[in-house]
Amino acid sequence: MAAQYEEKCGELAGYVLANQRGLNTPKCRQELAACIQRAIENYLAFEKGKSRYS
Predict the structure, then answer these.
(1) Quick one: DSSP state of residue 25?
(2) Sign of CA dihedral 17, 9, 37, 54
(3) pTM flag (> 0.85)
């Protein structure tokens, strides 16, 4: 599951940067994919904590 999750973040990063000249490099895609992954993990942790106190 984790490999598929990372793959989807990479695909999303590639899609976001597809039309950005100068930014659509492997390094930028990896950095954006890592940011997307951290944002999703933070959101999931927030939702877990929120449901715990409801």
Answers:
(1) S
(2) positive
(3) no
Alpha-carbon Rg for the chain, nearest whole angstrom, is 14
How many C-beta neighbours within 10 Å does residue 53 have? 5
Decide if 27 contacts 43 (C-beta within 8 A): no
What is the token pair recorded at 32?
A: 């954006």
Structure tokens at 23: 């930014």
Q: How far apart are CA 16 and CA 30, in angstroms?
A: 12
Confidence of residue 38 (pLDDT cuts 50, 70, 90): very high
What is the C-alpha to C-alpha distance for residues 19 and 28, in angstroms, rounded to an integer?
Answer: 13
Q: By the 8 A CB rule, do 29 and 10 touch?
A: yes
